[in-house]
TrEMBL record:
Annotated TM spans: 30-48, 60-81, 102-130, 142-159, 166-186, 212-234, 255-284, 304-325, 355-377, 383-410, 422-443, 449-470
Gene3D superfamilies xref list: Amino acid/polyamine transporter I
Keyword terms: Cell membrane, Membrane, Transmembrane, Transmembrane helix
GO molecular function: transmembrane transporter activity
UniProt cross-references to InterPro entries, sorted A to Z: AA/rel_permease1, APC_superfamily
Bilayer topology: Multi-pass membrane protein
This protein's GO CC annotations: plasma membrane
Record keyword Membrane present: yes
Name listed for the protein in its UniProt record: Ethanolamine:proton symporter, EAT family
Subcellular location: Cell membrane
Organism: Modicisalibacter muralis
Length: 499
């Protein structure tokens, strides 16, 4: 046992502790597919397009290919690890088994940043759409945020069966809206004139016909953080492991099907949205509602409010599913004692982690309200729509590096673990994920807006690590993730011992 693990102390709880923290199995492969796709799909409605001004259409295409490769490497690693370690802890669970309690906690903390802030950003955009539709005024936006949290946290609390039904329904609706856009866009595209209308100086090029890479390969790399939004949160699927009917079979199917769906959708929206006559890459690179802009160009502005309501479907899909992930992520760390244990108590009859979901929602909402009232509506919008969004990306990139490292270490140190599915990319897929994630972080640090957000993440990490060092590490619980890690560590040590 190394020095870090000698500083860890466990409390032994009886069966009543886990009875109060039970989950209910319900999800099959299509429910898992919907959970993964639904969490990501809002990124196909908005967010990705901001990268067009960083690298032009060609730069955004290269960035999307690179980020797609990173996510393929990541998802195949997860597809192998999640059925081998089928616990709700997901990233924390993988890192706990491979890197010990401190590695598990830091990895879980990285994911916590992502899953608390991402729904906050999404509900902000939902509020912006609703403000425009109902003309309620900027000062009313916090009411929309509160209504959104109450409604979708409530739906997740009611029960896992209803939660997965809503997830499947809104995910199918969101994809249907995208398919309608693709079909309606094809007769209205002029790729050269509109998609290639950014010049080498980053300004509008009248008449189009501009260069494929107006800012060179550096612009393509600078667009990578924005391309992340086409795939961000697909990695949340293992958080549903203990609510999956057969995680060893269904988890790999769900995550791989989800990734294939997202790749098709990402390249369709990247090609079609900027190519629609009357839109173009330059205008789209500054838009908060790129899909809505495309619909307006095709059908005219008279139906704007109806189109805005349609566009909200994608945001609702992601908001609902990431609220699910947020609750499970907080629940798993709390059940094992890394976070205060009261957060992991589940509802007495519905067996959903209601306290974890409410707690995570309150933290996200509090950050939004502080920004809104301390900085004013306009500055608050820039913070929530930019800095907080980038904080979530930074937390995600850090967790991806940790999960890829976990995969490599598990392959090396625990070869005997039963692996119902094995990644065809092996450790090379994991190393590719690490390299691309680190390059993405580098370009985040190169942008002053991203640097400001990273300072906020650093404070978040400092508070979390201080809590764990002073309190949490002395109160860990032998949860399923902890028992699995300790049991296989002992087996590995026995196998390495001299005969």
């Amino acid at each position: 046992m190394n020095k870090g693990e000698r500083s860890i102390h466990y409390k032994h709880e009886d069966s009543s502790y886990f009875e109060k923290r039970g989950l209910r199995r319900h999800a099959g492969p299509w429910s898992l597919w919907a959970l993964g796709v639904g969490a990501v799909i809002s990124g196909h409605y908005s967010g990705w397009n901001l990268g067009l001004l960083s690298g032009g259409w060609g730069g955004m295409l290269i960035a999307t290919i690179l980020i797609g490769i990173m996510y393929l490497g990541l998802t195949f690693c997860i597809a192998e690890m999640s059925p081998a370690l089928p616990h709700t802890g997901a990233a924390y669970s993988f890192a706990r088994s491979s890197m010990g309690p401190w590695g598990g906690f830091v990895t879980g903390l990285c994911e916590n940043v992502e899953y608390v802030l991402t729904p906050a950003v999404i509900v902000f955009f939902i509020g912006s759409y609703l403000t425009g539709i109902f003309e309620t005024g900027t000062a009313f936006q916090p009411i929309w945020w509160i209504i959104g949290y109450i409604l979708f946290v409530g739906l997740n609390i009611v029960g896992v069966e209803l939660s997965f039904k809503v997830t499947l329904t809104v995910t199918l609706m969101a994809l249907t809206v995208l398919v309608i856009f693709w079909i309606s866009a094809f007769p209205n595209i002029d790729f050269s004139t509109w998609a290639l209308n950014i010049g080498s100086d980053g300004q509008l090029l009248e008449g189009g016909g501009g260069p494929f890479l107006p800012m060179g390969i550096g612009g393509a790399l600078a667009a990578m953080p924005f391309a992340v939004w086409l795939f961000l949160a697909i990695e949340q699927l293992p958080l549903a492991a203990e609510e999956s009917v057969d995680p060893k079979k269904d988890m790999p199917k769900g995550i791989i099907l989800g990734m294939v769906t997202l790749i098709v959708s990402a390249f369709m929206i990247l090609f079609l949205n900027p190519s629609v006559a009357g839109v173009g890459s330059y205008a789209l690179g500054q838009s908060g509602e790129p899909l809505l802009d495309g619909f307006k160009a095709i059908f005219g502005g008279g139906t704007a409010k109806v189109l805005a309501l349609i566009a909200i479907v994608g945001l609702i899909s992601s908001f609902h599913t990431i609220i699910f992930a947020q609750g499970r992520q907080v629940y798993s760390l709390s059940r094992a004692g890394y976070f205060p244990t009261f957060l992991s108590v589940t509802h007495g009859t519905r067996k959903t982690p209601h306290i974890a979901m409410i707690g995570g929602a309150l933290v996200g909402l509090t950050i939004m309200l502080v920004c809104f009232f301390s900085l004013g509506a306009d500055k608050g919008s820039a913070i929530i729509g930019g800095t907080l969004l980038n904080m979530a990306v930074f937390g995600a990139m850090c967790s991806y590096v940790a999960q890829a490292v976990s995969f490599i270490l598990l392959r090396k140190n625990y070869p005997a673990i039963e692996r119902p599915y094995r990644s065809p990319f092996g450790t090379w897929g994991a190393w590719t994920t690490i390299v691309i994630a680190l390059v993405t972080i580098y370009f985040q640090l190169s942008d002053s807006v991203y640097r400001a957000g990273i300072l906020g993440v650093a404070i978040w990490f400092a508070v979390g690590i201080a809590y764990f060092a002073l309190v949490g590490r002395h109160r860990l619980i032998l949860s399923p993730e902890e028992e699995f890690a300790m049991e296989h560590k002992e087996k590995a040590a026995q196998n390495l011992a001299p005969k």
